[in-house]
Each structure stands twice: as C-alpha cells, then as structure tokens.
Batch of 2 targets.
Target 1
Amino acid sequence: MSEKWELNAVKQYLIEKDIKPSVQRLAVMTYLLEHRTHPTVDEIYSELQDKIPTLSKTTIYNTLKLFVEKKAILALTIDEKMVRFDGYRQRHAHLFCHSCGKVVDVPLEYDVELPQTEETKGFADVETQVYHKGYCKECLETKNLYIK
Amino acid sequence: MSEKWELNAVKQYLIEKDIKPSVQRLAVMTYLLEHRTHPTVDEIYSELQDKIPTLSKTTIYNTLKLFVEKKAILALTIDEKMVRFDGYRQRHAHLFCHSCGKVVDVPLEYDVELPQTEETKGFADVETQVYHKGYCKECLETKNLYIK
DNA sequence: ATCAAATTTGTAATGATTACAATTTTGAAA
DNA sequence: TTTCAAAATTGTAATCATTACAAATTTGAT
C-alpha cells in the first residue's frame, strides 16, 4: 500500500519537473508518491500538519497547483465535490465510488487517443483521463443503497 | 448545431425514464436535447428564464439531479469549477478546453471496459467517462497562453 | 370541490477554492 | 557575514457553486 521514497529521489524528481524543492513541497510530493489514495487537499493537509506544524492550507493549494502546472502530478475531477490528486505517472484509469468517495487505480490496457476530426483539430497539450463511476462492494454490502 | 425536438417526443422520453413531466422538466430536457453544449446550471437557468418567468435556480438543480438519478442525462465532472450536463445518449468522449471551458463531443470508437481485477470485483452500476483535456485552437490563436 | 402528495420556489447555509496582503525564507552578491 | 530583493509561505477574507430547508403552489385522484 505504501511504497517508501528516499528524500533525495523525491528532490530529484521535483528538480526534473522544474520545481524548486522546499520542505513543504517535498512533504506534499512524498505524500503523493507514497499514498496512492488520490487524496483531497484536506487529507493532505491533515496528514502533514504533524510533520510541519506551521503548515497552511493555502500552501497545500499553492503547491498542488504548481505541481499540476509542471505536470508532476494529475488533478482528478472524478469527484464532483472536490479535486483529487494523483502522483502516479503510469497510464491507468480510475474507479470511483459514489457512496464512499473512494478512488482506486485500475489498469488501462491501451492509450485512449483523441481522434482527429474537424472539431479536435488544433487542440494542444491534450491529456486523457478515463473514469469509471459506480458503487463499491463494501458500500453495497454495508449500506442500504437503492441502485436501480 | 440545434436539432429540433417535438414536445411529445420529449414528454415520451421523460416517461420512459420514469420521470413525471412538468413544464419545468420538459423545458430543461428539451434544452439539453437541443443543445449539445454541455451547459452548466447557470446557462440552463439563464436560457429558460424567458420561457418560464417564475423559474427558480433551485428547480434547475432539483431537475438535473433527478434526471441524473433516473439516468436520463449525464453529469460531466470534466470542469473542476462546475458540473456540466449532457443529454446525448450515444457513446462518446469529451474534449475540454482549460482556457475557455468549452466542452465538445468527440467520437469514441469502442467501449472502454472496466477490467475485472481484485480491486474492481463487486463494483456495481459502473458508467465510464473519457475526458480529453487541453487547449482549443481558438484560445491558442487569440490568447497568449504559455503552454510548455 | 377537497385534500394530500408532489413539485416548485426563495432564502439561508455550507464548503471548496481563490484572492490578497503580510510575513518569513532563500540565495546570490557585496 | 551582512544585505536585500525575489520567492515561498502563511492567515484571513472573499467568492461562488451547490445544498438544505421551509413555505407556497400545483397536481391529480376521489
């Protein structure tokens, strides 16, 4: 569940992505690399508060925004309530449970390409995300969900 | 751009989906069927205010929520700021411009299936959405975007 | 015509995100 | 090491999409 990352490897990764490392940035990136849970801003903030007592939630927002701009992580809009973040860089899709909000990685066998049509011509910097949305086994078993 | 729908056909469609037709519901569904622009709540509300002077934005929210529950329309979470709605029922993917927020339909040649793995086993009622995100030609040509 | 259920409406609350200004840290140059 | 401007961080206040909720209206069966 929780791969371990060397601080220097994380630092190197940030530098590769043209991001100046700082205590806060290293903590956020390390958290994302070690936790494949697609956390929200609040989850990251709560988890890192202990390690960095002066941490501000605005810093988490700033940092994640920077990481996304620099393409070091992915912002997932799978949950309509809030953005989830993903530091995993291999091609994969995501599965979302409408009931508990859990997001899990699922394999994606091939690239889903943007077709070349009149509409899509000239689009640049396209990144593709595949979302599967439904209800997970645990929620179906433990909650009384009315799924038609 | 704007296919025309008979009121009775829309009414029939709502009934098929187990939705009791009302003036408001017919107006919203007709709007979604005739406009493939993936409008937001505000856009739908603005457009229908003239036709229905007493219309409330809460009604738009209620109506869209009902339509989604009954699977008459799709809620797109492609834009992190707000939900977009789609009344088009054929299989297709979506293309999103980060700069202007435009969402356009693009062909999707095959079903993107949820693979059967330990993690995905037991998931129910899964619906798949494919999002392509980038910058559209118009924005690239008319705005000074720094795309690295 | 009556009346309960369903629907619509308006207002107030919620909560994620952003704006912004102040404070702190960093790192190069003297 | 000291200085100082740029960058990064922080806290607070504002924004704005969405939801909660209660009152008003409409619907449809009797």
Target 2
Amino acid sequence: MEKNVTTENVRAQMRKGVLEYCILLLLAKEDAYASSIINKLKEANMIVVEGTLYPLLIRQKNQGLLQYRWEESPQGPPRKYYSITQKGREQLEEMNNAWGEIVTTIENIKN
Amino acid sequence: MEKNVTTENVRAQMRKGVLEYCILLLLAKEDAYASSIINKLKEANMIVVEGTLYPLLIRQKNQGLLQYRWEESPQGPPRKYYSITQKGREQLEEMNNAWGEIVTTIENIKN
DNA sequence: TTTTGGTACTTTGTCTTGCAAGGTATTGTT
DNA sequence: AACAATACCTTGCAAGACAAAGTACCAAAA
C-alpha cells in the first residue's frame, strides 16, 4: 500500500540526511541536553522527536563524537549535558565538507 | 589517496535525503532509463547503485510521479524510459521549496 | 503524605529505505 | 553454441526515524 506523499513527508525525508550534522553543529557551539536540543532544532524548523534524538545521541556518544555529564536541574530530574569531543569536531569538519559538496551537486544537477 | 570509511558514510548519509529529489530533477529535464540515470548521477558525484534505483523508480511510478514507456535499444535489450508526470512536477515544486528551506535552516544553525 | 504536574531520559515495535549480491532477459559477436 | 555487453528485477539484511509507552525525579498543591 503506497502512502500518499505530503509536503511534510518530503521535508522529513530530506531532514534525515542532515540530522546528525545538525546535532554536531549545535553542540560545537555549546553543550546542551536532549530536551533543549529538540527545542533548538524546532526553532530552526528542524523537527525531531525524542524517539529519534535519544538513540542518535547514544550512537554518537558510542562513536566517540560526544561525551556527557550529569547536571542538576533547577526543576525536575538531572540533565544529561552532551558536549562535542575532539573526534566529534573532526567529524564535523568532514560533515561541513560533505554538506558543501551535496549543495554543489544539487546545483549542478539543476544547472 | 583513498578517503577513509567514515567520510564515505557521512556523504552516503546525506545523499539519502535528496535521492528522490535528484531523480525528479533529472527527469524534469529529459526522459531517461535507469542505467543512464545511474551514469548521470555518478557524473554529478551522487553515487547510486541498481539495487537502490530500481525500487525507487518503481515507488515513484506507483505514486504517480513518473510513467514509463519501452524503447528499442541500438544494442541490447529494450530500455524502460521514465518521464515525469504532472503530479511529479508538482512534487518537484514541493521538493525545491523543501530543499531551499533545509539549506536555509543549516545556515541558520551554523550562525 | 499522597497526589498531581512538569521535566527528562529510555525502550520497544513498526515501517521505510539503501544496498550487496544474485538472477533473468535480450542482442550482437566470436 | 558460447560469450560479452547491456539492461532490468528481486531477495535478504541492516540502519534509522518515529509513535507510543514506560521509568524516574522533583516540587507544589491537596
């Protein structure tokens, strides 16, 4: 059964490829915890939900791109603050290049 | 000099979100058959293999974005020429917008 | 003190999709 | 007939996005 393709689906599809890139971009600027990352991405029109972000952060941590520390919250449970590692910054360098190339490639195909 | 594995993974990841977009962009310019599409994308640095492209073309056809006709080949078996439909062009419009927004979003996150 | 509401992190199951590998089919050449 | 080149298609696996449900912590209200 083919699903009806909506505008949202198109955007969702395109977001997938750059999600990890966005996380590293954000964390390169400042440490953050999952819920705050979701809000920042939402503000930038890059919708992500918990079920996507948490496993993604764990994957990036397991790859050595991120590390985390626990911090008390003014209200509620403690927060897991993620920060980017040296390896993460190198990966981000690669991603910057890759992103630039993709953008160029699309431009080329468009002519 | 060979690029390391992770670099290739990063590029592959980012390509995923825009593959369908690239197909429609190409077919909006001229009809093409699968093997030629693979070559055109390869020239544009957007590597795709048969096992990816054939199911993708079938999906897009089932969604009404593409149609096809058989044409004799000067050498070898007949070719399945795909062309974009009206619905496909409308979808392409959406994708152009979506792509523009993603590019803008990334720029925003960078700053 | 129990309940409630807000915040935060985690896991499970499903669905889609990319891809390697192998298969089928047609045509021209040896 | 055998082979090479071209072209299309399928299968099985793996990764990942997401909805939904679960766990846990804290503070203020009942």
